Amino acid sequence: xxxxxxxxxxxxxxxxxxxxxxxxxxxxxxxxxxxxxxxxxxxxxxxxxxxxxxxxxxxxxxxxxxxxxxxxxxxxxxxxxxxxxxxxxxxxxxxxxxxxxxxxxxxxxxxxxxxxxxxxxxxxxxxxxxxxxxxxxxxxxxxxxxxxxxxxxxxxxxxxxxxxxxxxxxxxxxxxxxxxxxxxxxxxxxxxxxxxxxxxxxxxxxxxxxxxxxxxxxxxxxxxxxxxxxxxxxxxxxxxxxxxxxxxxxxxxxxxxxxxxxxxxxxxxxxxxxxxxxxxxxxxxxxxxxxxxxxxxxxxxxxxxxxxxxxxxxxxxxxxxxxxxxxxxxxxxxxxxxxxxxxxxxxxxxxxxxxxxxxxxxxxxxxxxxxxxxxxxxxxxxxxxxxxxxxxxxxxxxxxxxxxxxxxxxxxxxxxxxxxxxxxxxxxxxxxxxxxxxxxxxxxxxxxxxxxxxxxxxxxxxxxxxxxxxxxxxxxxxxxxxxxxxxxxxxxxxxxxxxxxxxxxxxxxxxxxxxxxxxxxxxxxxxxxxxxxxxxxxxxxxxxxxxxxxxxxxxxxxxxxxxxxxxxxxxxxxxx
Length: 576
What we know:
It is a single chain. This protein is α/β, with parallel strands linked by helices. The chain has 3 domains: 7-58, Roll (Urease, subunit C, domain 1); 81-214, Diaminopimelate Epimerase, Chain A, domain 1; 224-511, Metal-dependent hydrolases (TIM Barrel, Alpha-Beta Barrel). It contains 18 helices and 23 strands. The chain has an 8-stranded parallel β-sheet. Strands 8-9-10-11-13-12 form a 6-stranded mixed β-sheet, with helices on both faces. Strand 14 (236-244), helix 8 and strand 15 (264-270) form a beta-alpha-beta unit. Helix 2 (72-78) crosses helix 7 and helix 9 packs across helix 10. The N and C termini lie far apart (52 Å).
């Protein structure tokens, strides 16, 4: 025996996501993959007295999933505040149930000690009434405490009358740039109109920040740990904190120093918070992890949510929100193109990777213009700039992604959650058919990625796979743009090797090959071996990070519930 492995996997479908035939066995030693090949050779060359033979019993072994875009703290938040999600992830189908959920949470262990009553995940497209809750609805939840109900997009929300008072929003308050305070009636100058409680984008963000700051200290400190544990349950071995503040980046690092994360966390700081940063490198970007955390760069937010009809389009929405004209196209988060160019150019000059939230095609145009301008100023380089979501990318824009080296990271689950809403309300049949245009990306030779954007959706890896392959909608069961469907292997690549490449980590993650980290996931079946319509029924059996099982938790393992000496994250928010 030359060497002794810690583990030898065998007896199931092994999907390496690499070139070559499917192997019979994989050997792991000291957190690395040391052998991929035949079972007899694995046993003869790597089995020793302490080696554990792991029979997959017909199940599938894949590379650990890599989260191309999500919000670690948001995943924890999703598990902490009132659950307002619709089926199949929750059971809120009308305003009455939404109010009941908020009231129940307010009386629970976290809600009792929270300043605000907070819930996340309602979807006006799935509520029986087909509308957002208003201040009047939420006043029925409480008149003595501020209430915030957050839309599933995390780009809109509704507050009660006391919430509006806390925010200082009244008839004399103008809309902020890049945001909208919806009104009860048309404005009669000098009034802008009495707010109805529904807030969009940069009018919504202060409500989110105030409400989160009022959560109990213990709940805030546990958000990152809760998020990592939830992601591991879905097979992720690398996750993202995709749009944080410098203070919260420090809190993330301090949390990891107290209780190192069991999976890797890649963080991006909001670019607009760094404009006046005095430090030479306020991000501290690195390719190396410390206690399971590394910062990689910055995130820009250039528009809003298509399902919330705040994304910035070049052509009008099929049906505008109430009270808006037929030519309504949404709006930019940053109106001044030079500001966007400055943010991208600063990042390029400092060696920070850039992610940009761009849902609408007008926002994509603005971003591509900034990428080209910043490249001319700083010179070409392998930067792997990422267009996050890119929901309504036109074919010419996908070609520009390829020309400029921009990676599209699609929120493919939109085809499931909001495919019917896009078809009937947001975009119409023709434009809805090309949301998350993965096939166009493949046609242009792009190694696209796909993500969950949790907390907007659960960090459900299987749903990411299924939505790329079937593009079947939630309510009507329609295939939304069959020409954009991809095969199962391309779908797997989008959350393994392509996502690892997005992070400049393809040399150590994303495939099952000798020398790479033993970041692995065991599934009940291989996505490549079942009928496409059955992919959604696959379950995550086990998640393995560097050779150690992180889900399910090993027997007798104690869950971290207290993080002594870890500072509070005072500005937690989500730019999903």
